[in-house]
Amino acid sequence: MKTHIFLKTALVAGLLAISGTSFAAPSTTVTTTFTGTIANSCSMVAGTVGTLGLSTDGKTMGTAQTNGAKGSFTLTCTGTANMSIAEPIPNAGTTAATNIALLTTKKSFLYLSTAPTVAIATGDGTTTATSKSSGTYLVDMSLASTSVLATGDYASSVITTVTPN
Fold first, then answer.
1. What is the rounded end-to-end Cα distance, in angstroms, of the chain?
2. In Å, what is the CA distance from 163 to each residue of 13, 42, 48, 75, 160?
3. Percentages of the chain per state (helix, strand, coil), in multiples of 5
4. Measured CA angle at 63 (ends 124, 94), to 5 deg
């Protein structure tokens, strides 16, 4: 009996193959939808540490003086950001901090690394960098007095605030 059913099935399959007719199951499809939102966010990574150089008259220490160098940081944003920069803050425990009353000028500037001579923000709050994208930024600063600066160790910090647009 099993042989008879097998032969009957083989005969039908053979006839269908000869006639070119096929009986495939109907196909079905499904669509998978994906959605998502990218919020504008930014991160900052400190780069090189700036170096304070001394002016020839001994009254200014800053990154623009002989042997001085700007500090840097890298900004990575999914969109753009506004940036503001504060004036330099002499670090505690340094000669600058103990003689802060003698410092008559504290300046800071922010530059895009591809245009290191054009300030995009200033530490006095008169200029804020707007709609800036990811990149490397340079920080310039100086501390000055009307008299010759005292000998000792000088260190200062400049805070840059980034607000994603």
1. 80
2. 72, 8, 22, 11, 10
3. 15, 40, 45
4. 85
Calculate the CA 66 to chain-centre distance.
Answer: 29
The partner residues of 143 in beta bridges, in order of sequence, read 61, 106
Rounded to whole angstroms, the maximal C-alpha distance in the chain is: 117
Alpha helices (H) along 21-155: 95-98
Query: Which tens digit of pLDDT belongs to each residue from 12-58?
Result: 444 444 555 556 778 899 999 999 988 889 999 999 999 999 999 99
What is the C-alpha to C-alpha distance for residues 111 and 164, in angstroms, rounded to an integer? 18
Would you state the structure tokens that stand for residue 88, as one six-digit string?
């330099």
Burial tier of 152 (Cβ tally within 10 Å: 0-12, 13-18, 19+): exposed
Least confident of 54-58, 125-129, 140-144: 125-129
Parse the chain into domains and list their residue ranges: 42-164
The CA-atom distances, in angstroms, between 105 and each of 66, 123, 127, 146, 163 are 18, 11, 17, 9, 27
Can you read off the two tokens belonging to residue 54? 């001394």
